[in-house]
Amino acid sequence: MSLITISELGKDYGPHTILDGISLRLARGEKVGIVGKNGGGKTTLLRLLLGIEEPTRGNIRVARGVRIGYLSQIARLDESKTILEEAETALASVADAEAHLRETELALASEPENEDLLDAYGAAQDRYEFSGGESARASLLASLEAMGLPEKDWDKPVSVLSGGEKTRLSMAKLLATTPDVLALDEPTNHLDIRAVEWLEGFLQRFPGAVLLVSHDRRFLENTANAIWDVEATGVTPYSGGYAFYKEKRERVRAEQLELYQRQQAEIARTEEYIRRNKAGQNTRIAMGRQKRLDRLERLERPDAEAQGVKAKLASSGRSGENVVVAEKASKSFGSKPILDKADFILRRGQKIGIVGPNGTGKTTMLEILLGEQPLDSGFLKLGHGVTVAVHRQDEDDFEGEETVLEAFYERSGQTIAEARSHLAKFLFTGDDVFKPISALSGGERSKLRMALMVLSPANVLILDEPTNHLDVWSCDALTDALKAFPSTLLVVSHDRALLDAVTDHTLAFEGDGKVALHEGSYAVYRATKATPLPTAPTTRRKAEPEPIKANAFQLSKERARLQKRVAALEEEIGKLETELATVEAALASGEGDAITLAAEHTKLSGQLEAKLADWEQTAADAEALV
Predict the structure, then answer these.
(1) What is the pLDDT of residue 599?
(2) CA nearest neighbour of 315 among 344, 348, 291, 341
(3) Which of 386, 333, 383, 387 is nearest to 360 (CA)?
């Protein structure tokens, strides 16, 4: 039985259609990764499912009793409260249920024979147990510990927490509500790698369903068993993990491109025939072909792949052998050591991933290296002949009301024409360049910073969380650009796919000012430093909800109906596959009308995809009733 059913959903903002004609279902235990380009509608879809926004058309049905827990990109916390006080706000429903239970107990004590009060007391008990009951607080405290917020810190004000710590506090609160569906919008932003790995483990064990908007490719692969691809106002569902989705998507697009090219070639041949024969003895044939051409449903040209940034990173030439040298480098903030007599040398051509828990000093070390902060003692300097380009995490000097083009033009030194051409490589095309900075998403601001960075050729790139806010295709494009960069790279990141693809050394911040350089990517370092991850708290689960209560006879009848539907769908799928194979054989042989065959192939492929999706869901529904 589906927990959430979406039917013909559409959402408009004024004259702009963001989503249209979407029909999807979320099953129990399904963990869906929602992907798509920045600004394409991923968060809008999530907000519609949560009831935060109303659809323009269509409807969303949530099964009775299903609770959805939501973690937004921006933590909404009361910074005047302590960590524990803020966490306990998650137990408001439990506190209300307990207060009602106690009131009912008192009333029943005075009238123990009152049947109405007995019924009310039973209902109050059910409500209290449903909300978590006595175990709710224990589960909340366990969630705080597991999310890296230990008891010794619970009296600290929320205002002193980092962005990652606020995300973890929000997650602990969310888990305390025991949701049936977790809806998470970019949950790995601001989390360090250890916290991301813990969250992965938790989601893998979580018995409920998950809706997950993320750009973290490794995280998606490790947590999602289905993908919803949001593109061009529609959503295409794919069964299987992220790697399966990506391979299938590329294959389908390649097939669509081939059909498009065949149709275009046939159109060109037909038009040439018409041009040569419209005034000759074959005029009637030419006119007939013109009519067929006019009626033809023309295929749209598909992109070979979704667009990502086209960053090309140039090197300014050869630096000295030693790019960064640290000798007994020490730095503290109060009693907290950031660097404690650190000794390491980073050499020309190395690709170094800088990793460690949030707050251990990764960004501070980069600021010291760039001369923006002093050391307490020791030596930490760039080597001879080093020229640096820097991409900083969520930091720029853009003014809110200036446009993208104005911001880039004033800082780049290029002409307007050169600026527009360069911005197009970073997906700012057409009227996009006239958008005010204040209207840009986090990913768009990041791409604008990157567009400026690549204009300054350097032999050392320093990148602080460069994939934050980028969509998955821009992450892939950036990864390819960094792999091709011929000089030295220093990258602070929690994106393990990026680190493993790009880096060959790992500079690990291990706490208390300890820093060590290891040979190999993050995966190699992680394998040598394998330690148990924090244990996830036991998740309290109530009985699985049903939209309606059903007896054994009703369940058996419904199961039989679904099994009959599965058999009928299998027969229909077999027929469609046979028809599709016949059309593909005709296209491969070059016989027949290629235009008509291409159109038929497109129609049959769409019908088959829809039937397969229907079969998968119907079979899953039937199996759930066993």
Answers:
(1) 64
(2) 348
(3) 333
Query: Rounded distance, CA 293 to CA 313, Å?
Result: 46
* pLDDT one-digit tens code per residue, 246-299: 888 888 888 888 898 898 999 998 888 888 888 777 788 888 888 888 888 888
The 10s digit of each residue's pLDDT in 354-387 is 998 887 889 899 999 999 999 999 999 999 999 9
**Nearest to residue 169, comparing CAs of 68, 51, 281, 71?**
71
Measured between alpha carbons, how far is 523 from 505 in angstroms, rounded to an integer? 11
Beta strands in 14-159 (DSSP E): 16-27, 31-36, 57-62, 68-71
Write out the two tokens for 536.
């996830």
Q: How far is the CA of 505 from the CAs of 8, 326, 339, 495, 520, in angstroms?
A: 50, 16, 19, 15, 5
> Which pair of structure tokens corresponds to residue 66?
């299903």
Q: Is residue 162 within 8 Å of 359, Cβ to Cβ? A: yes
Would you call 504 helix, strand, or coil by DSSP? coil
Say how many C-beta atoms besides its own lie within 10 A of residue 394's C-beta. 15
Question: Quick one: 416 exposed, middle or buried, by C-beta within 10 A (0-12, 13-18, 19+)?
Answer: exposed
- Coil, strand or helix at 537: coil
Band (pLDDT 50/70/90 cuts) for residue 193 is confident
Strand ranges of the sheet holding 488-492, from the earlier edge strand across to the other edge = 388-391, 460-464, 488-492, 351-355, 505-509, 515-519
Report the distance separating Cα 290 and Cα 468, nearest Å: 52
The mean per-residue pLDDT over the stretch 228-238 comes to: 89
**CA dist., res. 329 & res. 505, Å (int):** 20
Nearest alpha-carbon partner for 512 in 283, 338, 293, 328? 338
Neighbouring residues of 517: CB distance < 8 A, sequence distance ≥ 6 = 344, 345, 346, 352, 505, 506, 507, 508
Closest CA to 94 of 64, 123, 122, 134: 134
Residue 546 confidence class, pLDDT cut points 50, 70, 90:
very low
Burial of 300 (0-12, 13-18, 19+ CB in 10 A): exposed
Q: What is the DSSP letter of 298?
A: P
Q: How far apart are CA 608 and CA 612, in angstroms?
A: 6
* pTM of model > 0.70: no
What pLDDT is recorded for position 129?
67
Q: Is 266 helix (H, G, I), strand (E, B) or coil?
A: helix
pLDDT tens track for 112-165: 778 887 778 777 777 666 666 666 777 788 878 877 788 999 999 988 887 777
> How far is CA 320 from each of CA 357, 387, 389, 458, 504, rounded to the nearest angstrom?
31, 10, 16, 13, 19
Say which amino acid occupies 578. T
Confidence of residue 536 (pLDDT cuts 50, 70, 90): very low
Residue tagged 């430093």 (tokens): 529
**Which 3 state secondary structure label does DSSP give 145?**
helix
Using N-to-C axis directions, what is the helix angle for 283-295 and 242-277, rounded to 10°? 150
